[in-house]
UniProtKB/TrEMBL annotation:
Residues 209-317 form the CUB domain. Residues 1-17 form the signal peptide. This is CUB domain-containing protein. Pfam families: CUB (PF00431). The keyword Disulfide bond applies. PROSITE patterns: CUB (PS01180), MAM_2 (PS50060). GO terms for cellular component: membrane. Keywords: Disulfide bond, Repeat, Signal. Residues 47-211 form the MAM domain. The keyword Repeat applies.
Length: 317
């Protein structure tokens, strides 16, 4: 903050002398969206947007020309060519042009967020144009400013595309390490009255978690371990050993957000079974033994703050 005030003071001083100040003012003072300050792991949990609240956050428009994204309500179109009825709700993002319908490029970006392996992004889109291929829409993944195209939807830009469609793309391959990334929709909207682009129902989904364990011994871990588990998880690990023995479950590492992210171990196959252990926070090698051959482990996390999680081995005894 002090630095910003200092730079502002310098820029004002420079402004007396010439035009250089405009660069300073633009870079330092203008884009104070509070969500730009969010750390990447928290940003991840904010990414979904159905635009029903009327705001684009944490996606933001940095389109360089007169074409921009606006949250439009189906009942009050901002452009004279109406959008098709959305797949759900009434609001969506739409490309709008100036009064002359000047064509131009569109850019819609996320803030930087941590992508986990297997993450998928789903969204509804509508793109049409008077002439085939007249408009463009592409989703790009940016890692340290290196961009990779995830999907190119420009092929749907035809005069007969009068419907919203849903698209799902993998943004980080299963097995990759968690990575801080930015997602960018690049678009181009032409000058015809019926040229249009819309986006809605953006959802980031993680890989399914938990699993079924039928061997006499094995290892289970929280999602992404030893990288942080994700938010809003509800993972079931169902252990059922082949012989009529008991199961010893031993956590060799355990650290979750204390009071918010829990592991519950049940003495049986369902959550109706007695609870053997329910823990959160840092725990040094917790260990339990069941009375029978079945054990259910449930891992839950809330909507913010995640830690390395846990790993455990089990054995038939
Ligand atoms: C996207 O696809 C269209 C044709 O469907 C093609 O003309 C265009 O060059 C593609 N854009 C990129 C960036 O690959
Ligand atoms: C559990 O695992 C830890 C670390 O691998 C080990 O040191 C400890 O002896 C084990 N405890 C039991 C009760 O098996
Ligand atoms: Ca919507
Ligand atoms: Ca948490």
């Amino acid at each position: 903050m002090k630095l910003k005030v200092f730079i502002l003071a310098i820029s004002i001083a420079i402004s007396v002398a010439g035009r250089v100040h405009q660069v300073f003012i633009k870079d330092v003072v203008q884009p104070l969206y509070p969500f730009l300050e969010v750390d990447p792991i928290t940003a991840r949990s904010l990414l979904d947007n159905d635009f029903e609240s009327g705001t684009e956050d944490p996606w933001y428009d940095s389109s360089p020309s007169t074409v921009h994204w606006i949250v439009e309500d189906f009942s009050t179109p901002t452009e004279s060519y109406p959008a098709p009825a959305p797949l759900s709700g009434t609001k969506y993002l739409r490309a709008i042009r100036d009064a002359n319908r000047t064509p131009g490029q569109l850019i819609l970006s996320t803030i930087k967020f941590t992508a986990f392996p297997g993450d998928e992004l789903s969204f509804d889109f509508w793109i049409r144009s008077r002439y085939t291929g007249g408009n463009a829409l592409e989703l790009v993944l940016s890692v340290d400013t290196v961009e990779k195209s995830l999907i190119n939807l420009s092929g749907y830009s035809t005069s007969v595309n009068l419907e919203w469609r849903r698209s799902t793309v993998v943004i980080l391959e299963d097995g990759s390490p968690p990575t801080d990334v930015t997602l960018i929709f690049y678009g181009y909207c032409g000058a015809n009255v019926d040229d249009a682009i819309g986006l809605d129902n953006i959802v980031l989904a993680s890989l399914p978690c938990g699993g079924i364990y039928n061997t006499a011994s094995g290892t289970l871990s929280s999602p992404n371990y030893p990288s942080p588990y994700s938010f809003d998880e509800d993972c079931r690990y169902e252990i059922s050993i082949p012989s009529d023995n008991r199961i010893k479950l031993n956590f060799s590492y355990f650290n979750t957000e204390s009071g918010f992210d829990f592991v519950t171990v049940y003495d049986g196959a369902t959550p109706a079974s007695p609870v053997l252990l329910r823990i959160s926070g840092y725990n040094s090698n917790p260990s339990v033994t069941t009375t029978g051959r079945d054990c259910l482990v449930i891992h839950t996390s809330d909507s913010k703050n995640s830690l390395a999680g846990w790993t455990a081995t089990y054995a038939s005894i």
